[in-house]
Amino acid sequence: MTTISFAQDALSHWHQALAIATGGKVFTTHGCSWAWQPARARLVLLFPAHAQEAGLRPGLAEGTRLGARRVDAWVNSGAPSGPLEAAGFTDAAQISWHAGELVSPAEPWDGRVRLGSDIPEATGADAAELKVANLWRDPASAGLSAGHPALRRVEQATARTLEGDLVGRAFAQQALGGQLAIHGLAVSPEYQRSGVGSALLYGLARGMVNPLGLEQPGQVELIAAASPRSAKFFEANGMRLLGRGRHMLLR
C-alpha cells in the first residue's frame, strides 16, 4: 500500500536523478539530504526529519558556493519546521499526495502520445533535464552505486497534435514498489481541459507496463505530488488523496 512516506521517497529519488543527470550532485549534511540541480541553479532539501542549524548551515553554504539562485525544501507536514523558518524558509503552495490506479479516459484525446526524449523544441534547462530519461540506461555514467533508487527507470511522454505541434509532456519514474511516480506534467494553456493530461498519464502507463502497445495499460498504481491547481485533475484520473505536505522556499 502506498503511503505518504513512500510518496516522499519517490519524489526524493526524482530530484536526485534530475541532479545527477544534469551534471549536479547529491550530498548530505548532518541529517539533511540535498540535491544540486545546476540546469536551473536550484538546490533542493529533501524531507529532513529533524532539520537543525548544524545541517542547514553547511548545506546552504555549499549552495552559495555552487551558485544556487533558488533553494527549495520539501517537508513532511508533521516534521518540525522551526529551524527551517529561522533559516529564512517560508511556505509556498501546499502540496497534496495522490495515489491510485489509472482510470481510462472517457473520451480519448485526438492526438498522439509518444515515449522518448528526442524533442527538438526543447531548449535551456528543459533540454538539459531530458537527460534524466537516459540515466537509467547508462548507470555507469551516474557515479552512483548500483541499485541506487535515483537510477530507477524514467520515461518521458510527449503529446502532439495530428499536425505535429507539441502541446504537453510528462515524466514517470518507476518507484521501488512498482508504482509509477508522475513528475513535471505540463500542458499548453490552450489545450488544458481537453484530455491531453489524461492521455499523457495513459501513454506513460501503457508504454512502461505494456511496451508492446496493448490496448490496456494493466493495473498499475500512479503517485504524484499535486499543486492546488492540479489536485482535481489527478483525482479525476483515479488517484485518491493520501495526505498533504509542505513545499518551502528560501526567501
UniProtKB/TrEMBL annotation:
CDD domains referenced in this protein's UniProt entry, alphabetically: NAT_SF (cd04301)
Domain N-acetyltransferase: 117-251
InterPro entries to which the protein is assigned, alphabetical: Acyl_CoA_acyltransferase (IPR016181), GNAT_dom (IPR000182)
Coiled coil: none
Stored Pfam families: Acetyltransf_1
SUPFAM superfamilies: Acyl-CoA N-acyltransferases (Nat)
Gene3D superfamilies: 3.40.630.30
Domain of life: Bacteria
UniProt protein name: GNAT family N-acetyltransferase
Biological classification of the source: Bacteria, Bacillati, Actinomycetota, Actinomycetes, Micrococcales
